[in-house]
UniProtKB/TrEMBL annotation:
Gene3D superfamilies (UniProt xref): Ribonuclease Z/Hydroxyacylglutathione hydrolase-like (3.60.15.10)
Sequence ranges assigned to domain Metallo-beta-lactamase in this UniProt record: 98-294
Name of the featured protein: MBL fold metallo-hydrolase
Name of one Pfam family that matches: Lactamase_B_2
Matching InterPro entries: Metallo-B-lactamas, NAPE-PLD, RibonucZ/Hydroxyglut_hydro
Organism listed in the record: Hymenobacter cellulosivorans
Length: 339
């Protein structure tokens, strides 16, 4: 008999969505919204052993990678800006506060960068807030967490429910604040003019054999300088985009994933493809879209340049509401100047 669902949130934090009881749990597993989602191993087996990529030769010939410019001087300074470090890693600076999102700074046995990091990892100092959307290894990297924690002793981590034990196994002294969906973090008096919310995503969690969906996943909304900036984390296309727009109204800047979408039977419940990302940005009534989660790692079957080419085609065809920004890795985006 299936376990009766329970609900969990951080009772010390404000819940901004009226009537929201918390994140649904079936036993020890978080639900993907209202329903429990369990990735099927059979799909992995089908992908790896039973299906041949119809774009195999095209992918092999596609050696495109994003351009890279050095951002070390920006990291040393204090001016406002937004910098993509590749994949889903960003640095955002606003009003003297520096935020780092989902840092993945090193290669591993399974993840090899297709382009250089735009700075030395040691340049990531003076980080005030570390925002971790979920626990997958291409977003939560142990070596990166250890380095960032060591170089930023006053760092505060904003993340999801039941993430703290995992993080403290990597860096025991971390200050971690967990939130459920639709909750506002308590930033205290040190960051006036900055509000950060943890919001839904359609995804899942697993790092080992026994932790399936035991740590929550989600996205972030930052309100600062009269603007709303949304970091989508990893997410399939689902109804939460409409929910977020209803709760907060039009968003100014959206950082949304566009890669790792083929084959669809494997990826469609985890990531948005370029058309879905454009639809999400339109639903969110975004003013500006900065794509991410493409070009840095080989995670799926589509050729490297296909995600950004497709999104640019969508924009040129008049089917994308926001202004599209396609920065080089390391390029400083002066987001405070965007209308």
């Amino acid at each position: 008999m299936a376990a009766q669902p329970t609900y969990l949130r951080n009772e010390a934090l404000r819940t901004v969505k009226s009537g929201y009881a918390g994140n649904k749990l079936f036993g020890s597993q978080f639900a993907n919204g209202e329903e429990l989602y369990t990735p099927e191993f059979s799909n992995v087996f089908r992908w790896k052993f039973l299906t041949e990529n119809p774009q195999k030769e095209e992918k092999k010939a596609d050696t495109w990678a994003p351009g890279v410019v050095d951002c070390t001087e920006f990291l040393k300074g204090r001016e406002d800006g937004l910098v993509w470090l590749g994949h889903a890693t960003f640095v955002l600076r606003t009003e003297g506060t520096t935020l780092l999102f989902d840092p993945l700074l090193f290669d591993s046995a399974f993840l090899k960068r297709r382009h250089h990091l735009p700075c030395q990892p040691e340049a990531l100092t003076n980080i005030d807030l570390l925002l971790l959307s979920h626990g997958h290894r291409d977003h939560l990297d142990e070596a990166s967490i250890k380095l960032v924690a060591r170089q930023n002793p006053g760092l505060r981590v904003l993340t999801s429910l039941r993430m703290a034990p995992l993080l403290r196994s990597m860096a025991s002294g971390l200050q971690v604040q967990e939130a459920g969906w639709w909750q506002q973090y308590d930033l205290g008096p040190a960051t006036p003019g900055l509000e950060i919310y943890y919001l839904p995503a359609a995804h899942w969690h697993r790092r080992g054999l026994t932790d399936l969906n035991k740590v929550l996943w989600g996205s972030f909304l930052i309100r600062t300088q009269g603007k709303l900036l949304y970091f989508g984390g990893d997410s399939a296309y689902a109804g939460h985009f409409e929910d977020i727009e209803r709760q907060f109204g039009p968003l100014d800047i959206c950082l949304l994933g566009i890669g790792a979408y083929k084959p669809a039977f494997m990826m469609q419940l985890s990531h948005t493809n370029p058309h879905e990302a454009a639809k999400a940005a339109n639903v969110l009534r975004a003013g500006h879209l900065v794509p991410m989660h493409y070009g840095t790692f080989d995670l799926s079957d589509e050729p490297a340049s296909e995600p950004i080419r497709t999104l640019q085609d969508v924009a040129q065809g008049g089917m994308l509401r926001p202004d599209l920004h396609v920065p080089k890795v390391g390029e400083v985006l002066r987001w405070t100047e965007w209308e």
